[in-house]
Amino acid sequence: MAVGTMISLGLYxxxxxxxxxxxxxxxxxxxxxxxxxGRKLGPAVTALSAGASDxxxxxxxxxxxxxYVAGISAMWIAVGLTIGAFANxxxxxxxxxxxxxxxxxxxxxxxxxxxxxxxxxRMLRVIASVVIVIFFTLYTSSGVVAGGKxxxxxxxxxxxxGLYVTAGVVVAYTLIGGFMAVSMTDFxxxxxxxxxxxxxxxxxxxxxxxxxxxNAIITDINPNLFALFTDASTNTALSTIGIxxxxxxxxxxxxxxxxxxxxxxxxxxxxxxVARRIGMSWMIMSIIGALFTGLYxxxxxxxxxxxxxxxxxxxxxxSQLLFHPLIGGFLLAAILAAIMSTISSQLLVTSSSLTSxxxxxxxxxxxxxxxxVIAGRISVIVVAAVAIALAYDRDSTILxxxxxxxxxxxxxxxxxxxxxxFDRHMTRAAAxxxxxxxxxxxxxxxxxxxxxxxxSLSAWMYEIVPGFILSSIAIVVVSxxxxxxxxxxxxxxxxxxxxxxxxxxx
Length: 506
Fold this sequence. Notes:
Layout: H1 3-26, H2 31-36, H3 43-70, H4 75-102, H5 109-116, H6 123-155, H7 159-207, H8 211-221, E1 230-231, E2 236-237, H9 240-247, H10 257-265, H11 272-302, H12 314-322, H13 325-363, H14 369-391, H15 398-403, H16 405-422, H17 428-447, E3 451-452, E4 455-456, H18 457-460, H19 464-481, H20 486-501
Antiparallel strand pairs: 1-2, 3-4
Helix pairs in contact: 1-7, 1-13, 3-7, 3-10, 3-11, 3-13, 4-9, 4-10, 4-11, 4-20, 5-6, 6-7, 6-13, 6-14, 7-11, 7-13, 7-14, 8-11, 10-13, 12-13, 13-14, 16-17, 16-19, 17-19
GO cellular component, one term: plasma membrane
GO molecular function, one term: L-proline transmembrane transporter activity
Keywords: Amino-acid transport, Cell inner membrane, Cell membrane, Ion transport, Membrane, Sodium, Sodium transport, Symport, Transmembrane, Transmembrane helix, Transport
């Protein structure tokens, strides 16, 4: 590995650790301070933190790889995600910020569900927490695997060393600074990702002789690479179901705990529109950069004799070939930034759930603020250790499970979050029904040995579609058959009053 690359990466790690220490010194010592940053996030940090923790390695590896293989038909998933992210800012962000504070100052999603529906049995919290802990532990492990493989393939270091370096740095700043550190590092990481995804495609296009020459090369390779409704990898037309499945990825945003927790932590509802503008601008420009990296990167590789690469490594390939080692190190840091931003967010959400939804509820009801913060930090270490242990098995089914986690969270929590924020007549029984129906539908859709046209159910239609629809139906039907408690009605009225009071800034 070139000395310049090592210097760039070393500086990157030092900056991340420095932010963690700064956040530790500036944050208050309460559990709300550790888990939600004291609800003091500004709009810029909120927006880029949500975006960076959302996109992960998908933005710099997955999406360019899909574009490399399938052409611009791969952009349907990007369109769906963009629409979903925008709707999340409009529908969920302002209401969730107000309601979680009204609902006994809820600091986790399970905490909010319990308080919203006055669930004295605490089963709603427990089920939601179990879903979060299981899926996010696996999700975290996949990020650690990605870090290990990046170190192995790019730096010629051992896979195991890559696991410990990736997880170690993330655990260090998450452990020290909590939510504030995670959010601030996400902000820096989001800036690095943004600059990288603008820089790489511009340099590639310039090396191809300009946009016209680059487009001519792509057309010569396969005209279907510019066909929006044709998969260039197979030269077959996309079906309506296929397009719906790709667009449906956007539905997942409403139920992702590591994303919507940012809305709970934003400083004020009046900051939501600013955060939305910043977040959506960042997302659209970054997605365009990722798409261009894959498409024009493919054109560049086609001009290199005898070169064959893994499509998902096109960003790494271009970073190492076209840039000075110092810049190349910065670009590789962008991939680490994407991986680390998601790992840190998932670690903290899982830690928050273990601390607030298990430790405090079932083990130490009278625990002090200091004790809960310590429990949260211990939880970060435990979850990270389990994730590293799972990551040692490269051939495990973790990655296949994680590929379905977006659908699982989206179907189990998405309709529940939306209806809980808009439907005053929604009941506790409906919340149970919606969450369980969504999760079970996704699992059955993935694993039932049923085929349609020779395809598995999951290959025929993305599982979030039936999961989201059936969960929504379950919530509506059960709400019609049951009655909300009087205290639930009163809490919702209090929420509506608070929201109405802030309408002018929403």
